[in-house]
């Protein structure tokens, strides 16, 4: 190696600059191929992986956003179902309904003399069952009207048909009517799918 250095030192300036340029070119090429090109390849691979991960993130963010929206929609639908089931419950719950009707009758000032639930029935292909309740009450016209109005305002659906007002009598200077009618309530029936 000393021999080559001695020859390089004694060489002409053109050879010195040419040799130095060759060494610089060789070092630059070696630097490029050994350090820069693998690093660039690695950077490109990581950029490609980042693009893939960004796309996955965007897809999953959209799914998560839709999931929250779907959960909110589900909560609203569950709330609406709960409200609908108070109007058209799945269970018979006649005892609870009769207690409510009794409370309404007392508040209206009526005397309830008959409350007779009949057997429920389901029409062909219908999603609800009818539960008829025969009732007889006594009170003045206004009290009976208030009673029927309060029944119409109940959360549970109750239809009143066949209203019969009759047998007016005078009690404590008040005209009292005896009214009989058919109150029908409903409940949801799960339909059988073929």
UniProtKB/TrEMBL annotation:
Keyword Nuclease appears in the UniProt entry: no
Keyword Coiled coil: yes
PANTHER family: FIMBRIAL ASSEMBLY PROTEIN PILO-LIKE PROTEIN-RELATED (PTHR39555), TYPE IV PILUS INNER MEMBRANE COMPONENT PILO (PTHR39555:SF1)
Organism: Myxococcus fulvus
Gene3D superfamilies: 3.30.70.60
Keywords: Coiled coil, Membrane, Transmembrane, Transmembrane helix
Protein name per the record: Pilus assembly protein PilO
Stored InterPro entries: PilO (IPR007445), Transl_elong_EF1B/ribsomal_bS6 (IPR014717)
Protein origin, superkingdom: Bacteria
GO biological process: type IV pilus assembly; type IV pilus-dependent motility
Coiled coil: 50-94
Positions of transmembrane segments: 17-36
């Amino acid at each position: 190696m000393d021999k080559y250095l001695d020859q390089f030192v004694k060489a002409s300036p053109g050879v010195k600059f040419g040799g130095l340029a060759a060494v610089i070119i060789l070092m630059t090429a070696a630097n490029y191929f050994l350090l820069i090109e693998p690093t660039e390849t690695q950077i490109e691979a990581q950029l490609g992986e980042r693009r893939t991960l960004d796309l996955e993130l965007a897809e999953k963010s959209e799914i998560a956003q839709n999931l929250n929206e779907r959960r909110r929609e589900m909560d609203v639908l569950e709330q609406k179902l709960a409200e609908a089931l108070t109007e058209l419950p799945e269970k018979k719950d006649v005892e609870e309904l009769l207690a409510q009707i009794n409370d309404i009758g007392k508040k209206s000032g009526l005397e309830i003399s008959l409350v007779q639930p009949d057997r429920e029935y389901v029409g062909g292909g219908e999603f609800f069952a009818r539960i008829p309740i025969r009732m007889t009450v006594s009170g003045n016209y206004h009290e009976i009207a208030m009673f029927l109005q309060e029944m119409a305002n109940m959360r549970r659906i109750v239809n009143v048909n066949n209203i019969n007002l009759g047998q007016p009598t005078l009690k404590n200077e008040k005209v009292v009517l005896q009214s009989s009618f058919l109150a029908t309530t409903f409940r949801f029936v799960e339909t059988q799918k073929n």
